[in-house]
Design a protein that fits this description.
The chain has 572 residues and is α+β, with helices and mostly antiparallel strands. Helix content is 15%, strand content 36%.
């Protein structure tokens, strides 16, 4: 047949303004309509019987020229004033779509007879719905009516702001004539290739040059999907005939701009526009937003000057500047040494501290109120040096919105010269010993202290031996040997690492031999250093103890075999 082409244009949507509703929310199907058909009156009699002329009426409701939206009531036999009280929902109603009501007489031997129809324009039911009596047309000499109620429901919308694809079907021409008389009843189905979800245009009757001019969203579209367009001829009593199809590959519109012609496989030309909506990136969430300037409670951190050794205790909200008059020396850090003119008098930096989910864990974050402009001083000189102003953490510039997290040992740089490091401090020095005793008592109340073995890493040799452990079993053996209990069976189901202050730094559990063999030691060993404590929890679970004892027996036998073999080699 003759060649066929298709013109497609793909353009990106501008991100919506922050104060407005997302532009994508207003696209696609605008409404769902809940339909109630109460009754019909004075219908035409389409059947003739011994007991008089009657009909077997039922009603259909659909979006005009969209047969796939049709909903249908039950049949009321032998009645001219049926009362259906039928309810249904039309899901994909678009702007400008009229609704059509058709009343039919059910015939079991032949095709059904039309008893009347009426169309309700879009403006009559949108946006406030409709309730009343409609007069049917094509009723013969009868004045038939139908009582209906329409309620407009909000269209479903996915709250997740994700990339979306909208297609506007404009028109087609040169399509194949599939019906008698040289015409077709064309509509187009649009979907992501390989997926079932799709949308379809309205049916334009008796033409090979339809004009649709409607937009919809491709359901389940994802970035990288090919778009498939398939044009069909609608047939009421048989399967629809395919008039042609074409695929727009993702590589052709991946950059959001495409304009060109694509050839259908059979015959005809179709014109469409593709819009790709790319949502704006989500705003970052500040984990310390709940810490306010009036929160001046003490925090378990302190800053130490790397130049002078000066120590400043942090509060939950600490301001850094160089004005002693404007800052509170009890809580804020005043940098008054010579040569700090590049530091702001007030609010050069803000440090927030707060307690995490665990009362023993605290978090800290530093912010630069002057934002990106001040942060540009970090690495601003040739070779990546510090230009002037700004705040950095380990040479990473601090921003205003969410700042940067700081941990033990982090180096904070204010301006060019002031360099401070973060250290841990006792929250309440007078009650620290009591708190440790209370914590130990709480632990002993729930767990037997005799089932634990603690090793405070005493030397570099011990730390070196622990760092060389390649698996769970070898770590347990090394700890037990340094504890002076080499004969204790290495049956341990939990390993903890406590830092120098006795705060838990890591905890790992492995209750089966298989879990222990598959365990990666890096989760524990990266927290092990001199001065920390490695705690083992011994287990008497037979499901774990039995295979470990069996493995010990095999290990001893293997060692004895090696000893015997070497003895024979040495002494004959």
């Amino acid at each position: 047949g003759a060649s066929a082409t298709m013109t497609v244009a793909a353009v990106p949507l501008e991100p919506p303004a922050a104060a407005d509703e997302p532009a994508a929310r207003a696209r696609g199907p605008p409404a769902r309509v809940h339909v109630t058909v109460f009754r019909a009156n004075n219908l035409r009699a389409a059947d003739i019987g011994l007991r008089g002329a009657k009909s077997d009426p039922y009603v259909t409701v659909w979006v005009k020229d969209r047969p796939n939206t049709e909903i249908k009531s039950k049949v009321i036999p032998k009645c001219l004033d049926p009362e259906w009280n039928f309810q249904g929902t039309l899901e994909r109603c678009k702007f400008g779509d009229p609704l059509e009501f058709q009343v039919w007489d059910r015939d079991f031997a032949g095709s059904d007879d039309l008893l009347g129809r009426v169309a309700l324009d879009f403006d009559a039911w949108h946006p406030d719905g409709y309730e009343g009596t409609l007069r049917l047309e094509e009723t013969g000499k009868k004045e038939s009516t139908i009582d209906v109620k329409l309620e407009v429901l909000p269209a479903p919308f996915d709250e997740e702001d994700k990339p979306r694809c909208f297609v506007t079907m404009h028109s087609a021409w040169g399509l194949r004539a599939a019906d008698f008389g040289g015409k077709s009843d064309p509509y187009c189905v649009v979907r992501s290739r390989g997926k079932r979800s799709s949308f379809r245009t309205k049916v334009v009757p008796k033409t090979v040059t339809p004009e649709w001019e409607e937009e919809d969203e491709i359901p389940d579209w994802e970035v990288g999907d090919d778009i498939e367009f398939v044009v069909f001829d609608y047939d009421r009593v048989s399967d629809d005939d395919e008039l042609g199809k074409v695929v727009l590959e993702a590589a052709q519109y991946v950059d959001g701009t495409f304009s060109g012609e694509l050839q259908l496989k059979k015959k005809g030309t179709i014109k469409v526009t593709v819009f790709i909506y790319i949502p704006p990136p989500p705003k970052p969430i500040d984990p310390g937003a709940h810490v306010t300037p009036d929160n001046r409670k003490p925090a378990p951190f302190q800053l130490r000057c790397m130049d002078t050794g000066r120590v400043h205790r942090l509060a939950c909200y600490t301001v850094v500047g160089r004005s002693k008059k404007c800052l509170d020396p009890r809580y804020d850090l005043a940098l008054d040494s010579p040569g700090v003119s590049d530091i702001s008098r007030v609010d050069h930096a803000i440090i927030k501290c707060w307690c995490g989910a665990d009362p023993m864990s605290w978090l800290a974050r530093v912010y630069d109120p002057r934002g990106v402009q001040a942060a540009s001083g970090v690495g601003g000189l040739p070779g990546g040096g510090h230009g002037a102003g700004g705040t950095s953490v380990d040479n990473e510039p601090v921003t205003e919105e969410i700042g940067l997290p700081i941990e033990m040992g982090s180096v904070l740089r204010f301006g060019v010269r002031e360099m401070w490091t973060l250290e841990r401090a006792m929250l309440y020095q007078k009650s620290y010993a009591g708190e440790v005793a209370c914590a130990r008592a709480r632990t002993n109340a729930t767990e037997d202290p005799g089932s634990f073995r603690d090793l405070r890493v005493p030397s570099g040799a011990c730390n070196h031996a622990l760092q060389k452990c390649a698996d769970w079993d070898s770590l347990v053996r090394v700890v037990l040997e340094w504890c002076g209990e080499p004969d204790e069976p290495p049956c341990v189901d939990a390993i903890e690492v406590l830092d120098e202050m006795g705060v838990r730094a890591a905890r790992c559990e492995a209750r089966t031999l298989e879990e222990q063999e598959a365990f990666r030691m890096g989760a524990i060993l990266r927290e092990v250093r001199m001065g920390c404590t490695v705690r083992l929890r011994l287990s008497s679970d037979p499901c774990l103890l039995a295979p470990i004892l069996r493995r010990l027996g095999l290990h001893k036998k293997r060692m004895q075999d090696i000893h015997n073999s070497r003895s024979e080699d040495l002494f004959g």
